[in-house]
Amino acid sequence: MGGKCPSRKVKKRRYSHKTARRSKFLLKGDDAVYGELQQKPGGEMKEATLPLDEDLPGMGQYYCLHCDRYFANVSVRDEHFKTKRHKKRVKQMMGPAPHTQLDADLAAGMGAPDNGLKLMSM
User: Fold this and answer.
1) What are the DSSP calls for 3-17, one per residue?
2) Does the global pTM surpass 0.85?
3) Using CA atoms, how far apart are residues 56 and 62, in angstroms rounded to an integer?
4) Integer Cα distance of 30 and 5 in angstroms
5) pLDDT in tens, 44-101
6) Where do the segments described as Disordered lie (predicted)?
7) What is the C-alpha separation between 93 and 37, in angstroms, rounded?
8) What is the C-alpha radius of gyration for the chain, rounded to an integer number of angstroms?
9) DSSP code, position 42
10) Alpha carbon distance 45, 82 (integer Å)
């Protein structure tokens, strides 16, 4: 009568393979994407303007600027444009500017000191 207790739960692996896959292609922050959108009118990029890159899906030709994602082909990218996640992201990027590191520093009191008006010294 040996072995493990039958009521003991088997521990599952807690490592998420999906998380590791996501971190393979680092995404830009909201403020960086917002800055790019302000520089480029129109938002959507054309395939001819992107350089070829073997390391990216679809040779780096099919890109969503709002979500900062590359896609394998046109049909997958077009399906992505119809998703709720993409539409939320577009709406978020069309709104007010997201917070930046400068905003966080100023809120924490680490910005430039404000000593008031400079008085004339005599």
Assistant:
1) S--TTPPPPPP---H
2) no
3) 10
4) 50
5) 555 457 888 888 888 888 989 898 888 999 999 999 999 999 999 899 888 888 888 8
6) 1-21
7) 8
8) 24
9) T
10) 16
Closest by alpha carbon to 48, among 35, 37, 62, 64?
A: 62
Pairwise CA distance, residues 54 & 113, whole Å: 48
Cα dihedral 54, 59, 64, 69, rounded to 10, equals: -40
What pLDDT shows up at residue 112?
72
Tokens of residue 120, six digits = 């004339």
Q: In the chain, where do the E strands start and end? A: 62-64, 69-71
Amino acid at 76: V
Euclidean distance between the first and final Cα of the chain, in Å?
Answer: 97
CA distance 16 to 2: 33
